[in-house]
UniProtKB/TrEMBL annotation:
Keywords: Bacterial flagellum, Cell projection, Cilium, Flagellum. It comes from the Bacteria. It holds the Pfam family LlgE_F_G_D1. Belongs to the flagella basal body rod proteins family. InterPro entries: Flagellar_FlgE/F/G, Flg_bb/hook_C_dom, FlgE/F/G-like, LlgE_F_G-like_D1. Residues 188-229 form the Flagellar basal-body/hook protein C-terminal domain. Residues 96-145 form the Flagellar hook protein FlgE/F/G-like D1 domain. This is Flagellar hook-basal body complex protein. It is found in: Bacterial flagellum basal body.
Length: 236
């Protein structure tokens, strides 16, 4: 019975993390360049159970079988699918026609990658992000604002496991990305979030039902423990 409480506690912790992730995705539905994040979980390894109630005197080892104490969050992955393009008619807005990323130089000098092409122009006539990060060309130099579509450094980050989110739609990679030499860039458009509201709503309802199921099991387990403590002890 006590094991039951441990298993339920683990399950509810997992559900809380899933709900937090869904909330974060839903909060960024309208964030340009945001990438949907998903959690994945696995079942814990089974363990052997036994007691010493075998034999004529009920004092020999008896192997009961295997038991699994629940699930665990194994990690997360980033959905690399392209989001829909939205027309803005703003000359400083750009979108990649695919799954490529713009390359930027972050405040600490590290290269970062984003799909949010909603840029501004600084005092040096250079394109910068909304956070003031320089947008780079293929030589890792700042891109100058011109009437023509600039030659941005667009890269392919095919393996989402190498990415680390830095917040505000910026990512860094543990491996060198591949430069897309002939990337198609559309001016006056931005790439929107790739979060599917319908999928998130389904996930939210499923999580809610799992919460209810765990609450019912918790109530039944609590009632069983209550009887064991308060009633069995009174039997003459």
């Amino acid at each position: 019975m006590i094991r039951g409480f441990d298993t339920l506690n683990r399950n509810i912790d997992i559900l809380q993390k899933r709900q937090e992730n869904i909330s974060a995705n839903m909060a960024n539905v309208n964030t340009n360049g945001y990438l949907d994040k998903e959690l994945f979980q696995s079942t814990l390894k089974s363990v052997g159970l036994h007691n010493y109630q075998a034999g004529a005197n009920a004092n020999q080892r008896h192997n009961i079988g295997q038991f699994i104490f629940g699930n665990q969050i194994d990690g997360s992955y980033i959905n690399m699918a392209a989001g829909p393009l939205k027309e803005t008619d703003q000359t400083n807005d750009f979108a990649t026609n695919g799954t490529g990323f713009f390359t930027v130089r972050m405040a600490n000098g590290q290269l970062g990658y984003t799909r949010n092409g909603q840029f501004t122009v600084n005092d040096n006539n250079q394109y910068v992000t909304q956070d003031g990060y320089q947008v780079l060309n293929q030589n890792n130099q700042p891109v100058q604002a011109t009437k023509q579509v600039p030659k941005f450094k667009i890269v392919n980050l095919a393996n989402p496991t190498t990415l680390t989110s830095q917040g505000n739609t910026y990512y860094t990679s543990t491996t060198a990305p591949t430069t897309i030499n002939n990337a198609q860039i559309t001016r006056g458009f931005v790439m929107q979030s790739n979060v599917s509201v319908a999928d998130e709503m389904v996930a939210l309802m499923q999580t809610g039902r799992e919460y209810e199921a765990n609450q019912k099991v918790l109530s039944a387990t609590n009632e069983t423990v209550n009887k064991a403590v308060n009633q069995l002890g009174t039997v003459q």
